[in-house]
């Protein structure tokens, strides 16, 4: 079947290209390894259309076949990775003002994570849906289902560690919790659950919030039980264990391998390396830290099985700091711990601030793009920095990206880059597309 398909594709171009028979393929192409075969076919098509010179291969979208124009990276050949997944997270309130049909969500997001919709009762370990919010979202959920998006419910968070400890340590409570969760997912037609259990053991002299030292056993028991309960109905199980950074999480040891057989996706925080827990700007999406992924691999015993399930979390919102000293902007500079500035600023607000208020922009894909003026400092991503992150994701064979605060993208095109440019850039890099992106900021 595959051989016939390749022959049909080649034959179409042989017949249609300038009305002639352009024989740029050989029988050997069909038995080449998949990656080499794809590039060979791409080059054949490009040669057929007269798009190749002696120096470079012309760029075109692997999905649409369209030639990439001036708005796309020049002299750049980047293979899309449509098998990679994208998890988009939204607060319930934001989705009411963000209709799916007006955004690129359906073209990019494989999963949509709904935050603040599932309630966890600390008194009796019961869970329930916020009914009024759910009723407002019914049309959105239905639209997502029709579009092939998996709807995922989040449960847990910073204040839920002790509640999960209670569930994980008691078999009867685990059984009851799992039965409730299965019923809710079925009754409300959700496709999976995102367990946000912010544990585990903290490194010495580090305040990581409330946790219990024996939670590692509880996590395994709970994930195993949920897997057994949810698997027959083919519900997905996501697990997020990060504290204020993935580095702190893994410094406590390997917590993923023991549950790798039960979890569909691990979500790993890449942007919270320092945040409000640090005395200096140790920038959140710092690629030098991301690329030190070998640190994680050394901690994970079951490398391949775990890494291939990891969704690397990126922040759509721009981390915001108030500098201690005006214009002392370099990475590592001190910032005000108790600032009146919000910890995150929307993509559109940062774009407008940079354009209108004479911010200085510093770009370095090996560390972090940022903009500053006086005592205000924003971290941001653009196409080139996301391109590096996409390359990194592919190099480790990770599962994909999780987008945190997706509702902080530019949904109304205030920046002039089209609606939701961050999401569209991720879509182009991972899944291919029309590549009609205006560069922002």
From TrEMBL:
GO cellular component, one term: extracellular region
InterPro entries found in the cross-reference section: Chitinase_II/V-like_cat (IPR011583), GH (IPR017853), Glyco_hydro18_cat (IPR001223), Glycosyl_Hydrlase_18 (IPR050314)
Secretion signal, residue range per the UniProt entry: 1-19
Domain GH18 as annotated: residue spans: 84-433
Top-level taxon in the UniProt lineage: Eukaryota
BP GO annotations: carbohydrate metabolic process; chitin catabolic process
One Gene Ontology molecular-function label: chitin binding
This protein's UniProt keywords: Signal
Name assigned to this protein: GH18 domain-containing protein
